[in-house]
């Protein structure tokens, strides 16, 4: 059975993004083995002074860390291994302040590791997760599908670029304008479910 890693940052009561994710899970849980990470309950370690230097020394400098030092990196290493072990990734998150919530960014900072999930080869930088595919489920309050906001959507380009950097083709189902078009939010969720069915049929 193929494996799916689900990353959920949907802490708000009655979260619309969660409705999309719940539908994905209901639709597919019999067809795939799911590992679920709740990024609103358990955040990856932020790259602060100690762990950043251990990571750089180990992954770029080839330094062998002590067991104690390895423990400092263990939480993020585990998240990276979960990514290496999966066939599919689903990331569910709202847009926060034109980008992604900090814990979602922290997940990418945890799993994008030199020598492990990407590396420097004779032909340039290469992502090592080439057999993985990703789906992004995102909502926003305003309409980021049209200007003046379209060109300041830093969330979708970041997510697609970061997955691609890892070698992972990614597609996004975005439902923008949940507050702006509140009267249409139910229809937007219904539309998202139809799009989720299409991706699910392609994947499993
Ligand atoms: C901290 C915070 C920041 C937000 N920033 C944005 C933003 O930059 N652009 C936007 O359109 N909506 C923004 N919103 C609104 C949410 O993206 C929107 O309501 C989304 O649908 C919430 O998803 P949820 O229902 O899954 O919680 C923000 C909401 C919060 C709580």
Please, could you describe this protein's structure?
Helices cover 41% and strands 20% of the residues. The chain is an alpha/beta fold and 204 residues long. The protein has one domain: Flavodoxin domain (Rossmann fold). Helix 1 packs parallel to helix 6 and helix 2 crosses helix 3. The radius of gyration is 18 Å and the shape is globular. It starts with a strand and ends with a helix.
Annotation keywords:
6 helices; 7 strands; alpha/beta; two-stranded antiparallel ribbon; 204 residues; single chain; binds flavin mononucleotide; Rossmann fold; globular
Q: Could you give the topology of this structure?
A:
Elements lengths: L2 E6 L7 H13 L4 E6 L10 H12 L6 H18 L3 E7 L7 H10 L6 E4 L2 E4 L5 E7 L15 H11 L4 E6 L9 H19 L1
Parallel strand pairs: 1-2, 1-3, 3-6, 6-7
Antiparallel strand pairs: 4-5
Helix pairs in contact: 1-6, 2-3
The structure holds flavin mononucleotide (FMN).
Flavin mononucleotide (FMN) binds next to helix 1.
- Head-to-tail CA distance between termini: 9 Å
Count all strands and give the number.
7
Helix content: 40-55%
Anisotropy-based shape = globular
Compact summary:
The chain has 204 residues and is α/β, with parallel strands linked by helices.
């Amino acid at each position: 059975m193929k494996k799916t890693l689900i990353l959920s940052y949907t802490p708000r009561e009655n979260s619309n993004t969660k409705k999309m994710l719940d539908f994905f899970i209901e639709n597919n849980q019999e067809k795939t083995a799911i590992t679920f990470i709740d990024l609103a309950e358990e955040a990856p370690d932020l790259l602060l002074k100690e762990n950043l230097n251990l990571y750089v020394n180990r992954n770029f400098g080839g330094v062998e860390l002590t067991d104690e030092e390895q423990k400092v990196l263990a939480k993020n290493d585990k998240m990276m291994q979960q990514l290496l072990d999966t066939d599919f990734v689903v990331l569910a998150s709202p847009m926060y302040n034109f980008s992604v919530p900090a814990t979602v960014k922290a997940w990418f900072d945890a799993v994008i590791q030199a020598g492990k999930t990407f590396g420097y080869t004779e032909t340039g930088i290469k992502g090592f997760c080439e057999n993985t595919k990703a789906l992004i489920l995102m909502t926003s309050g305003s309409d980021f599908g049209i200007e003046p906001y379209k060109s300041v959507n830093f969330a979708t380009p970041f997510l697609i670029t970061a997955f691609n950097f890892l070698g992972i083709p990614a597609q996004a189902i975005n439902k923008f304008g949940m507050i702006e078009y509140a009267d249409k939010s139910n229809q937007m969720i219904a539309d998202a479910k139809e799009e989720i069915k299409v991706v699910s049929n392609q994947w499993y």
